[in-house]
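Input structure tokens:
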């Protein structure tokens, strides 16, 4: 059991496996274990007339009845229901079954539900897919979760959550495939980066820092395109419009600004 207070739970719901990290009051992330392994199979098995099994239990049950087995619920996110054996199961329930397993293990490890939950997602996922994740998390008992694009989560983890563009090597990984997608030593910031966001296509990356500077980068090449600020107030949130033509920024003073995106 994790001793001391619990700051939060981070979940990477992957195509084949799911990984979760618990952070204590000391800020140190620790992997959540499932049957002594940090990797939980994302597979789900629908017991005829019964529960939804997850992880290794689902894989074992599938040997006798493969028709009731879904190995990759994440790939079914655009479907409303999936036929497992003779049962129709909603995709929300499939995802919720995996997240519920994570929630139960987190509470078992700490003795209390985590106060905050972060759930990663592919950078290209839009509102409809995120709505499925949000409903699944709610149904799993996780409450309202915070969404973070997978490349941003990976970069933040590798730098201890204190990203900086001042000569520190930043690696960008795709957690779903465990592949390195790029590196950079200069994100164009002289100060600590406090917020990051991708556009819907994953082509643009916006980063904001503690001075209020915002840098727009070509995501595949990690090449700066434009810079605004600094304003003197740390950037706390960034968001692209659905068409990618505007970037909204929010700072610690409560000021919200709209910037046209010029490529």
């Amino acid at each position: 059991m994790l001793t001391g207070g619990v700051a939060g739970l981070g979940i990477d719901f992957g195509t084949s496996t799911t990984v979760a990290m618990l952070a204590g009051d000391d800020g140190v992330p620790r992997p959540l274990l499932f049957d002594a392994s940090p990797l939980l199979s994302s597979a789900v098995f629908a017991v005829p007339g019964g529960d939804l099994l997850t992880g290794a239990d689902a894989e074992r049950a599938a040997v006798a009845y493969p028709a009731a087995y879904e190995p990759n619920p994440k790939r079914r996110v655009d479907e409303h229901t999936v036929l497992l054996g003779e049962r129709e199961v909603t995709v929300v329930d499939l995802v919720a079954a995996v997240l519920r397993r994570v929630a139960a293990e987190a509470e078992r490890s700490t003795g209390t539900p985590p106060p905050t939950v972060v759930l990663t997602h592919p950078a290209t996922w839009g509102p409809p897919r995120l709505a499925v994740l949000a409903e699944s998390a709610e149904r799993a008992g996780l409450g309202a979760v915070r969404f973070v694009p997978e490349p941003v989560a990976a970069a933040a983890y590798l730098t201890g959550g204190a990203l900086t563009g001042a000569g520190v090597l930043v690696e960008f990984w795709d957690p779903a495939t465990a592949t390195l997608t790029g590196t950079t030593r200069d994100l164009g910031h002289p100060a600590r980066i406090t917020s990051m966001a991708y556009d819907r296509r994953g082509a643009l990356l916006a980063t904001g820092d503690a001075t209020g500077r915002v840098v727009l980068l070509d995501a595949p090449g990690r090449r700066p395109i434009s810079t605004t600020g600094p304003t003197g107030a740390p950037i706390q949130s960034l968001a692209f419009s659905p068409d990618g033509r505007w970037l909204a920024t929010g700072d610690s003073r409560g000021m919200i600004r709209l910037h046209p995106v010029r490529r």
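Residues 1-6 have pLDDT under 50 and may be disordered. The radius of gyration is 20 Å.
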